[in-house]
Structures are given as structure tokens and as C-alpha cells.
Design goal:
The protein is mostly helical and 178 residues long. It is built from six helices and no strands. Helix 4 packs antiparallel against helix 5.
């Protein structure tokens, strides 16, 4: 009985070893066949390269160019054409044009557009500082408009009280005459 179980064990182990060899040989034959080589070459050409390309930094305009665009949009300054396009160039130009036309009439809308523009890109520090200065200017414009409105309201109140006083004086004169 013992020899019989040993024989069965040997047959099973040899079957397992032989089947493993057949699987490995089939895999090696599939890899070495020319059709398999062409398939792997095709896959390599269609798949992206695993090599990492160096990222190029975005090209932001120099501060002088930003200031020139601002001056150009508000009038009175000619900009020398530049062949290079910068990141955020069109947005800056559109904003400066809008700002020049609307800062006196609607400074709150200008401020909201300025805040959106400031958050739209990772501006370099010098452009960030320029935009901060523009925020300060627009904030001063908003405050001046509020003060002007308060003065207008106070003036209307004073004029209204003067008109009331004038009417009372006219009524007194009329009553004295009668």
C-alpha cells in the first residue's frame, strides 16, 4: 500500500512538473514567434512613451509689456508689436479695455472682473503686484463714488430743508400782509 501511494504521488508530481513545462514552452514559443514580435512592436508605437518630457514653464508677459498694454488700451501709448504670444495676453488686453471704459461709471463691475482675472492664472510676482495696484485704484474709485453719493444725498437733504424753510418764510410774509 505504501509503495502504491508513493507511485501515485510520483505520477502526480511528474504530471504537475510536465504540465508546467508545457505551459512555459508554449509561452516561450508565443514570444519568439514573428507575429508576436510584430504585435508588441505595434503596441509600443501606439502607447505613449513612458519617458517623462520636461515641462516648459508657461511664458507670461514681462511687466513692461503689461503696463504698455494697459496704457495702449486707455489711449495715448503705442505698443511695439511682439511676435511672441504670452499666457493671458488676450484676457489682460480685454480687461484693460473694459477697465478704461468703465472704471468711472461702474467700478464694482471692474473690481469683480479684476478679481476673476487675478485668480485666472498663476501670475508672476511683478504682474501680481501690478494687479494689486489696480485693485487699490479701483477700490479708491469705489470709495470715491460712495462718498460722492453720500455728499449728493446730504446736498439733497440740505436743499430740501432749505426749500421747506423758504416756504415757511413765504407763508409768514403772506400772513403778515393779511
Amino acid at each position: 500500500m505504501r509503495s502504491r501511494s508513493m507511485a501515485i504521488l510520483c505520477v502526480l508530481s511528474s504530471t504537475i512538473v510536465l504540465s508546467g513545462c508545457e505551459i512555459n514552452n508554449a509561452h516561450q514559443r508565443a514570444v519568439s514567434s514573428p507575429a508576436a514580435v510584430n504585435d508588441t512592436t505595434k503596441n509600443k508605437s501606439t502607447l505613449p512613451s513612458p519617458k517623462v518630457r520636461p515641462k516648459s514653464d508657461p511664458i507670461y508677459p514681462p511687466t513692461e509689456q503689461v503696463i504698455a498694454w494697459h496704457a495702449n488700451q486707455c489711449g495715448g501709448f503705442k505698443v511695439i508689436p511682439v511676435k511672441q504670444t504670452y499666457l493671458g495676453e488676450t484676457e489682460l488686453k480685454h480687461f484693460f479695455k473694459y477697465m478704461c471704459l468703465n472704471v468711472n461709471t461702474n467700478p464694482n463691475a471692474v473690481m469683480s472682473k479684476l478679481l476673476k482675472l487675478d485668480l485666472a492664472y498663476f501670475w508672476p510676482d511683478d504682474i501680481k503686484q501690478y494687479l494689486w495696484l489696480q485693485k487699490q485704484q479701483v477700490t479708491m474709485q469705489i470709495n470715491a463714488k460712495k462718498e460722492q453719493q453720500a455728499l449728493n444725498d446730504k446736498m439733497q437733504e440740505t436743499l430740501s430743508s432749505l426749500a421747506t424753510i423758504e416756504q415757511q418764510l413765504l407763508l409768514r410774509e403772506d400772513t403778515k400782509e393779511q
